[in-house]
Amino acid sequence: MSVSPFFNPKRDSQLGEMMRDMGGMQRRLMPISGTFNPMTDDSEIMNSNDKFAVNLNVSNFKPEELKVNLEGRQLSIQGEHDVENEHGASRKSFSRMILLPEDVDITSVATNLSNDGKLCIEAPKLEGVCGRSVPVKEASMDHHHIE
């Protein structure tokens, strides 16, 4: 809960500036609408040996209201929807940042929006990046440990 409705510092004071910054951070971290949160409403992140996938329910948004960007390994998903009616105007929005694992082929990231509003973002895993088990051998009396 924000303290802004109960406390209104002067605009040009340091405290006022800090409150504006905190409000901006809060808006970036949480959706503006209290009823829509794509990371809890029908959403999932899957990270298997074959692929990485993010599935979001974005049925409240039109395709042109969605943005998916990739900078390096940082995946950014945003949606913004304006609603106007006889009572006024409001805006629903969300923003999510996901750091893709090192073994994801970032050149093959693809999106798909289904007719029922499910956004799927997925990418295959890189081949040959899999880890391997390294056996632990007991040292014999002839071998010395590394110092």
TrEMBL record:
One Gene Ontology CC term in the entry: nucleus
SHSP domain residues: 34-139
GO MF: unfolded protein binding
Biological process, per Gene Ontology: protein refolding; response to heat; response to topologically incorrect protein
Cross-referenced Gene3D superfamilies: 2.60.40.790
InterPro entries xref list: A-crystallin/Hsp20_dom, Alpha-crystallin/sHSP_animal, HSP20-like_chaperone
PANTHER family with a match to the protein in the record: HEAT SHOCK PROTEIN HSP-12.2-RELATED, HEAT SHOCK PROTEIN HSP-16.1_HSP-16.11-RELATED
Record-stated family: Belongs to the small heat shock protein (HSP20) family.
Protein name, as recorded: SHSP domain-containing protein
